[in-house]
Amino acid sequence: MTVERTLAVGEVAGTGTAAPYHRLRFAPGEVHSTRTDFVPGPAPSGDHTVIATLGHLTDLHIVDPGTPARLDFAMRTGAGADGWGGLVDWVFRPHEALAPHAAAAMIQTLAGLDLDVCVVTGDNIDNAQTNELSAYLALLDGGRVELSPHGYHGPQRLDWADPWYWQPDPGDDRYKQMWGYPTHPGLLEAATTAFTAPGLGHPWLACLGNHDLLVGGSTATGPGRAALAALATGDGKPIALPDPETRQALQQFLTDPMTLLSGPTRTVPAVPGRAFASAADFVLAHRHPAARPAGHGFTAGNEHDGTAYYSYDPVPGLRIVVLNTDNPHGHWDGSIDKPQLDWLADQLRAQGPDDPLIVLASHHATSSLRNGYGVCPDHPGERAYADELLRLAVGCRNVILWLNGHHHANRIVAHHRGDGGGFYEVTTAAIADWPVQARTLQIARERDGGLCITSTLIDHVAPAVPGADRYTSTWLASLHRELAYNDAVRAGRTGAVGGALDRNVRLRLPARS
Fold first, then answer.
1. Model pTM greater than 0.85?
2. For residues 429 and 234, what is the distance between their CA atoms, to the nearest angstrom?
3. I want to staple 388 with a disulfide (CB 3.0 to 4.6 A). Which of 70, 225, 266, 384 is the partner?
4. Is the separation of the CB atoms in 27 and 6 below 8 Å?
């Protein structure tokens, strides 16, 4: 499988000169490099046997942009203030209202490929809301996608008169002044109009991410949860901090979010679908009769036990082990509880050459599996972190891949065993942010018994430059990607793409003994 086309940075159309706002163009697809972390030299030519082809889709961040339970105003009132930590990284994107259309375009692209299963590794939704959950399932399974039944109500509206944000309607704002952002009258109404998605058409497996379960990707259940839930479904949207001198915003949001959300408000239409989803709600929503495979991987045992980890065999000889790395106490990074660690140890115990190959999947990468927030100091073993999980994974000869997201970047890391073998940890970029890509992984057996895993990054079907068919879903997906590249507040546009050995690459592993 090869990439037919890949995106590259272009110049503003028709000028030939650099400008604050960049347009994109399609360039020829990258050739596949070969990683030699475990096996020297290029993959041999000739016969090989394909075991399976996986899709990897992550960090869709399907968002209800008008919900009152978001700190979108923190981009203006809190950016740069001491104590905000990483909060401002997720509270507002200029292209966020277009997210469902970018996801639909990528799902359409994956639907046209020959996949055995697609693994969707979390942050499927943005703010743990049931209307976001319904929209994400409709995108992947097919159905009506509706997040804002009353249209867009938020800081990007021109009548909110807040020029800190990009406002697509004619007028002046910070994004237009500083970065040359365009004007698109009526964009917000078009972006938030309900539409019908055809769905993926392939079996797909679900995984919990921190934004799927935690409000704002960080805040868990606690004393302020009921008040926050009432705010989410109500008709008052906070527009500023109650105290502009706030300096410990992260800690306050984790412990009592209403201390940041009790400032001045604007009246917005109330939406009951903004109720928060629990982990049980998330699992149950996937266990509908038309799901392929059943429950999108979630089992009756998950439903009964209140867990969200499982294993699934998409083809003979291959097992996908899906972890739930959310810390229910809060914060955005991950870890797992002791019962799940014991379950994983059972999954990986005494695996021999005749047992299935194993692909691990989780939302968090190993570099972000160090979240001990809320753990009692007297019980440090309550949760397990990267070192313990890596010890189990490296110790099992059958583990070949670990798929994850969370970092919104393309990365591939080799984890070595003492005998010369090991596995590859593959992190794929987000749909929410540049470079707006998914990945396929073809797992094949070579003639000598070794494995060759071919990683290929995928761009969605929408044109590089938005065309004349304004405000169609395809046009909105094109604009989303263009805006994602130009999101100067997030910066680091090129770093998320990864290096050549993180993208289109053949990953070779020696034969199991």
1. yes
2. 34
3. 384
4. yes
pLDDT at residue 495 is higher than 60: yes
Establish how many alpha carbons lie within 13 A of residue 199's alpha carbon, considering only the half-sphere containing its beta carbon.
13
Give the residues across from 56 on adjacent strands: 119, 439
**Which residue(s) pair with 383 in the sheet?**
337
CA-derived radius of gyration, the chain: 22
Report pLDDT for 86: 59
DSSP alpha helix (H) spans, 378-440: 386-394
The whole-angstrom separation of Cα 249 and Cα 71 is 10
Tokens representing residue 295 in the block: 């429950």
Distance CA 115, CA 1 (A): 11
Cα–chain-centroid distance for residue 59?
1
CA dist., res. 329 & res. 334, Å (int): 10
Residue 364, both tokens: 């968090």
By DSSP bridging, strand 204-206 and strand 236-238 are unpaired
Q: What is the pLDDT of residues 378-394, one digit of tens each?
A: 777 889 999 999 999 99
pLDDT digits (tens, 9 = 90+) for 233-254: 999 999 988 877 766 676 778 8
N- to C-terminal Cα separation, the chain: 29
